[in-house]
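Notes, p. 3: input format for complexes.
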Amino acid sequence: MDVIDFHIHYVKKELLNPTWLNYLESINPEFFSKMDEFSEHPELVVAHLKTEGVRYAVVLPECAPATSGYVPTEEVIDYCRGHETLIPFASINPNVHEDIAQRLEEYVKIGGVKGLKLHPSYQFFYPNEARLYPLYQKAQELRIPIVFHIGTSIFKGTRLKYCDPIYLDDVAVDFPDLKMIMAHSGRGFWYEDCFSLSRLHRNLYMDITGLPPQNLLRYFPELEKNSEKVVFGSDWPTMPTSIRANIEAIKDLPLSEKAIEAILYRNAQRILFDI
Ligand SMILES: [Zn+2]
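Output follows (275 residues plus zinc ion):
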């Protein structure tokens, strides 16, 4: 079965703040010792993903200088270029960038990015603020998805109030054709809210990045019913186990074959390739 990983990070020592670097070193020391090589050579990531059983992976930049770090979209675009496996996304920060809608258009039309990541709790904005609406309008027009970080984080400086999923309700109503994904599915406080919101809005999805797969049915007892709205992500390299181990754990859940295939591949394929 093909797998799409909707959530991996391009990392480089000099671009991450200490809070992320220290955590990465503690959680994945094996990767950390080879980090410089991976940052220089995308073909190593491609080969790694292949051994883990991943066909495509969304590669995320991160413009959050006040918290986790500043990994520019431009570097991610360069890194992914020429590698079909790696799907670059953009990171835009409404407190750093001006002309956010125009910037997105350039990233998509010139840089070839396939989606946008926003980080309310690291970038400090409520998703339903009016100043974000031109950006949403543009994403909807360009038919690209937006991933929102929705959930707790141990990174220093995080302000959780901004990623309460209820603020996405407004956006889902106002932009009915904009596909949005709640990364981490509300980890910590908001599992039920994310589940209900994604059931309610046809354009709102959940990703299970960072959640131990064996606990998924405890967080979401009715996962099977919502399996068309859930996508798989690993958070690699910021993860304690292997991507393959997580994939296998999902395959072992008491879900139908159809649901597992939807979560591991089909839903992401529909979102990314607009089919
Ligand atoms: Zn992540």
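The chain has one domain: 4-272.
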